[in-house]
Amino acid sequence: MELDDNNNVISVEEKPKKPKSEFAITGLYFYPKGVSEKVKKVIPSNRGELEITSLNDMYLKEGILKAELLGGGYTWFDTGTHDSMIEASNMIQLVQKNNGKLICSPEAIAYNNGWVDDKKMLEASELMKKNEYGQYLEKLVQKKIRY
């Protein structure tokens, strides 16, 4: 994607051979009400695929496509091949083991932000108490871990 000085998106392009900028749209999207109707208008690309870029382009033409730049502490993995998926999985596993924290746990994020209380977290952990994820959620409450 190409941005202006206010992070307004001024162009999007699917898998360009020569990118217009150093910015990539990494796949985290928040769309307004009515997106379902727009999706119905997306037609297959020259590659025969329904491209999210087509949807983004619709919002760009309406002048309402915005970007949020992610700074340090964020990593994007291109997981479009088997090898790249394995590499990303291995990296995430390594980081999680070294930090003792799970990456992208919706429950932990909600707990950390105060969107759920101890009771709700324990209810979620109880549903998965036989696996490491449920045990991790319970540990967050027991040790009052916030990150």
Which helices and strands, and how do they pair?
Elements: E1 2-3, E2 9-11, H1 35-39, H2 52-61, H3 82-99, H4 106-112, H5 118-127, H6 132-142
Antiparallel strand pairs: 1-2
Q: Short summary of the structure?
A:
This protein has 147 residues and is mainly alpha-helical. It has 6 helices and 2 strands, in the order E-E-H-H-H-H-H-H.
Keywords:
single chain; two-stranded antiparallel sheet; 41% helix; elongated
Question: Can you describe this structure?
Answer:
The protein is mainly alpha-helical and 147 residues long. The protein folds into 2 domains: 1-68, no CATH class; 82-142, no CATH class. Helices cover 41% and strands 3% of the residues. It contains 6 helices and 2 strands. Strands 1-2 form a two-stranded antiparallel sheet. A hairpin with a 5-residue loop joins strand 1 (2-3) and strand 2. Helix 5 (118-127) runs antiparallel to helix 6 (132-142).
Query: What's the total count of β strands?
Result: 2
Helix/strand-derived category reads: mainly alpha
What does the oligomeric state look like here?
Answer: single chain
Largest sheet: 2 strands, antiparallel
Helix percentage: 40-55%
Number of alpha- plus pi-helical segments: 6
- CA-based shape: elongated
